[in-house]
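INFO  loader      accepted 1 record
INFO  loader      residues=237
INFO  predictor   begin
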Amino acid sequence: MRLDKYLSNMGHGSRKEVKVLLKSKAVEVNGEIVRDPKVHVNEHTDLVSVGGEAVTYTEFIYLLMNKPQGVISATEDKYDKTVIDLLGKDEQHFEPFPVGRLDKDTEGFLLLTNDGKLAHELLSPKKHVDKTYFAHVEGVVTEEDTEAFKKGVVLDDGYETKPASLNILDSAVVSKIELTITEGKFHQVKRMFESVGKRVVYLKRLSMGPLSLDPELELGEYRHLTEEEMASLKDRK
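INFO  predictor   done
INFO  writer      dumping tokens
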């Protein structure tokens, strides 16, 4: 990879800005000052430093976010703030995107990455990746609903959902539940409850596949996945 591309990819400015950086003799490759932007480096074996600080090449980025309400799961939007707007410039530089979508009024677990292959693995209907939600539901949720969800319910467009696991935490005028589904149809959780005559008034995603929402993350906060979390993703492939 060309040195100017390498440095630009690692957030050291545009190609033009990197050329200025190189001319200032601030860049070393394997201990030697390099000023030529066309020099090729091996991103895995060559030691590159800028101003004496080592540059570690990173191709992919993996972020776990606690998405707040009022923010949309998209990379850009003309009218609303997106989850990308919540990231710092260092993370935005990698051009991550949300893996799947959470409704604007839904909060909780959201994975962001620029790894398209991983995103496909997690979103493919054939993979049956579990997604667990916590919800407040207007209406008394009963064991009949649990059995109906276990068999699959018919949505308003005639689609029959795959079996889902409904756990009733509190059956009341406004019930509290946890629901695990293996697919991600548009507004699916809300539409499933509508099919049994009830309405979701609060929705939060708790987990996706082997990853769970970090309870220490405040709404709108995010962090990089840990090595253990990355290993759990690779193990499930």
